[in-house]
Amino acid sequence: MSETGKFTVSRWASRRPVLRRGRGRDPLGLRQALPGVLLPAVALAMTLLATLALGGAFGARALALRWQEGAAAAVTVQLPDMDQARVARALAALRELPDLVDARPMDQARMAALLRPWLGEIPALPLPAILELRFDPLPDNPEALALRIISVVPGAAVETQGVWVARMVALATKVQQTALVAVLLVLLLAVAVVTVGIRAGLSARQDVIAILHDLGATDGEIAHRFAGRVALLCVLGALAGLALALPTLLAFSGLAGSLMGRMPVSRLAELPWRGLPWPFLLALPVAVAALGWATAQLTVRGWLKRLP
Amino acid sequence: MAPGAAGLYVGRMVRFTSVGLRYAPPAGSSDPGVGQDVLSNLDFHLPAGSFHWLTGPSGAGKSSLLRLMQLAQRPTRGEVEVLGVVTSRARRSELPALRRRIGVVFQDFRLLPHLSAFDNIALPLRIAGRAELALRADVTEMLRWVGLEPKAESLPPELSGGEQQRIAIARAVVMRPALLLADEPTGNLDAVQSRRVLSLLQEMHRMGTTVVVATHSDSLVSAYPGPALRLADGRLER
Ligand SMILES: Nc1ncnc2c1ncn2[C@@H]1O[C@H](COP(=O)(O)OP(=O)(O)OP(=O)(O)O)[C@@H](O)[C@H]1O
Ligand SMILES: [Mg+2]
Q: Most buried residue, A55, A102, A141, B48, by CB count within 10 Å?
């Protein structure tokens, strides 16, 4: 053997005690029994899916709120002038429509506010009368409804795009609910997988656990060691999952932004960072770790009940 | 501080009243008659500070009796009282603290194979939450006491049977237990080493620890005469 060979061997030998000292603090050998692959992978997948679902839910909510602002009514009927008698007659005729829940003239102040960007402050200008109609359920065929309104209120101009907006809002709400259900399912699934992983770790270490138990270790101490390791692995996985989810989230947010009329972006700083639900996103790794910790505590303590 | 000095306990150390033990039949066993009484009608008490042999042929139930004393097993019938605590009335959460005051040399050592000799001996101290700096001196003293200081960093599979047995003894003693239970502690040792281990155990006894040593070797008992619990077929012969 050459000199370098000897040097390497002796250097390795001198480092051995240090390695072993470290193991003394891991008497359960959890670094092997709970290897750093399965749990982080589960935490990563869970965080990724939960983040995307939450991002989708928040995006849908923002869109829904935004659209609702713009379209308070499903259908608007515009009459050429403000003649009171004519408005009353039109309202009476409109109230005969099926599924109508509300029909009223648009509030003057609100109309002025809506028109201000276009017309400026010109109170003297004769404004048309606008009637707002709400339906429940929404009409299946807005075009047919428009024709019917024109036939009962001659001279009216009918605007039905509110029906589409209301439909989009309903869809967005559904997306939001579905996303939350998806998050719950992902959580349940993750708890199941983590439980299986911990049970595998427990049976891999049952002899060692029995020895620690017989030497006077409490259930709490053994569970604490497992839970600490699981929580650490979960945090690491969750942070990776969050990092992976960010580009997609930003794309979601950008898409929602452009649906709201913002310009598409080309530089990193222009990405819609502020549009993301940061408190929720940052709480996710903590929540995932807490979930792993609690699952480990419950699983290990339940398992230890078999010992006297 | 010398090992054992803190383990002093005045009064009754162990008391068995009509104790019987039957292991649960293995899961899936169809024969309901299976599961004979391994121990039955045990009535005895060990005063604090005493030294007792526990003898009997192989299969007589010596290890099972030690498991009961060590609170690793609950009796099927009767009362086991250890260190003044009637275990049937104790809550499960009270038992770990009691176990920490009992040192055990297991028949099959039960060392943790992935931990060094040092870390195996340090285990009871770490379980009890001793600070790393404080336990270092105790463990090193223990290693010296059993003559294995140079092997501090060896893993159990790298040690001979006799060396593993001495590590197991050091681990049982390092907490200065009030009660020391040794199951065939000389089973793997030659005559010289056996004498050495026996004198270690008697040193513990001299320092106030209550000691019970199980063995099926009559020659060992006659070499070190002392009071004995004799088991045959799960019963005590007086
Ligand atoms: N965990 C167990 N489950 C079922 N039966 C057991 C168990 N442990 C021991 N036994 C049975 O109890 C009886 C007594 O065993 P024990 O180990 O107490 O004997 P021993 O006196 O220590 O024997 P040895 O001198 O060989 O160590 C034996 O018949 C054994 O088969
Ligand atoms: Mg035995």
A: A55
For B235, how many CA atoms within 13 A lie in the half-sphere containing its CB?
A: 5
User: For residue B64, which atom of ligand 1 is closest to its CA?
Assistant: 18
Tell me: pLDDT of A166 over 70: yes
Residue B92's pLDDT band, with cuts at 50, 70 and 90, is very high
Nearest CA in chain A to B98: A216
Q: Which residues of A touch B70 (CB under 8 A)?
A: 214
If you measure from the C-alpha of residue B40 to the centroid of ligand 1, how many angstroms do you get, rounded to a whole number?
Answer: 14
Average pLDDT over residues B48-61: 94
Of the candidates A81, A53, A50, A125, the one whose C-alpha atom is nearest the C-alpha of residue A284 is: A50
Its domain, for residue B212, covers: 12-21+37-236
Q: What is the DSSP annotation of B169-204?
A: HHHHHTT--SEEEEESTTTT--HHHHHHHHHHHHHH
Report pLDDT digits (tens) over B94-152: 999 999 999 999 999 999 998 999 999 999 999 998 888 889 999 999 999 888 999 99
Cα dihedral A48/A52/A57/A61 (nearest 10)? 130
DSSP A148-199: HHHHHSTT-EEE-HHHHHHHHHHHHHHHHHHHHHHHHHHHHHHHHHHHHHHH
Residue B27 counted as domain residue = no
Percent of chain A with pLDDT over 90: 21
Is B1 within a domain? Answer: no
In-domain check, residue B55: yes
pLDDT surpassing 80 at residue A14: no
Number of structural domains (chain B) is 1
Write the residue with the smallest CA distance to atom 29 of ligand 1.
Answer: B59
**In angstroms, rounded to a whole number, what is the distance separating the alpha carbons of residues A267 and A289?**
34
Q: How many angstroms separate the alpha carbon of residue B59 from the centre of ligand 1?
A: 5
